[in-house]
């Protein structure tokens, strides 16, 4: 059975909106103000290389599909060649290679995907999808790259109303010279 891993860039106050600066958020691109160092870059590359499937919400998918097919290097090559599963009720004909769409009964379809996958299913960004996955108790691991900033407002990774989920801290480390924290949480037994 596959392991569903959510990986996110977040501020200290839990905002994950527009870390790359492409979504017109007032603080868009906030992660670029910090150096996560070679060890932080290696962490992101390693988690991608370990993934078997990329699971994305439509908005994140569209941002990735606009950027990554034209890029080169190991990260781009892996992301472009990996199977990508997009959860969307509006996307019907994805153009990025190796992409399929889940448009209904999301929880059942992702449960089936977990059953059929031997490795990691990696979810980046995709806030609406992450909320659905948390609510359905399908997330096995959270990997948070916490940047030392308080944004004060913006979309939060964990919205009000989700049920409690008990986690165990599996790993924590500081990456880069600016104090970016990697925190890995797994489901508590």
Q: Give me the strand/helix succession.
A: EHEHHEEHEHEEE
Query: What's the level 1 CATH class?
Result: Alpha Beta
Average pLDDT rating: 94
CATH topology: Dihydrofolate Reductase, subunit A
Structural domains: how many? 1
First-residue to last-residue Cα separation: 17 Å
Instruction: Summarize the biggest pleated sheet.
Output: 8 strands, mixed
Question: What is the strand tally?
Answer: 8
**Helix segment tally:** 5
User: What structural class do you assign from the helix and strand content?
Assistant: alpha/beta
Residue share in helix: 25-40%
Strand content: 25-35%
Molecular structure report:
- Strands 4-3-2-5-1-6-8-7 form an eight-stranded mixed sheet, sandwiched between helices.
- The protein has 189 residues and is α/β, with parallel strands linked by helices.
- It has one domain: Dihydrofolate Reductase, subunit A (3-Layer(aba) Sandwich).
- It has helices spanning 37-50, 58-67, 74-81, 106-116, 127-135, and strands at residues 3-11, 51-57, 84-87, 99-102, 120-124, 141-147, 167-175, 180-187.
- The relative contact order is 0.26.
- The protein has five helices and eight strands, in the order βαβααββαβαβββ.
- A hairpin with a 4-residue loop joins strand 7 and strand 8.
- The model has no long low-confidence stretch (mean pLDDT 94).
């Amino acid at each position: 059975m596959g392991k569903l891993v959510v990986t996110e860039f977040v501020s200290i106050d839990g905002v994950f909106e527009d870390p790359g600066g492409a979504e017109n958020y007032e603080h868009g691109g906030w992660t670029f103000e910090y150096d996560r160092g070679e060890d932080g870059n290696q962490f992101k590359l390693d988690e991608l290389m370990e993934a078997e499937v990329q699971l994305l919400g439509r908005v994140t998918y569209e941002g990735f599909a606009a950027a990554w097919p034209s890029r080169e290097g190991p990260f781009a090559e892996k992301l472009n060649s990996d199977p990508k599963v997009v959860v969307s009720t509006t996307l019907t004909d994805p153009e990025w290679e190796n992409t399929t769409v889940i448009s209904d009964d999301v929880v059942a379809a992702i449960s089936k995907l977990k059953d059929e996958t031997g490795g990691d299913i990696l979810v980046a960004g995709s806030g609406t999808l992450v909320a659905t996955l948390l609510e359905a108790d399908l997330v096995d691991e959270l990997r948070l790259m916490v940047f030392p900033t308080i944004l004060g407002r913006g979309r939060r990774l964990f919205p009000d109303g989700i049920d409690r989920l008990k986690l165990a801290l599996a790993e924590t480390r500081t990456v880069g010279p600016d104090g970016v924290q990697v925190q890995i949480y797994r489901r508590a037994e």
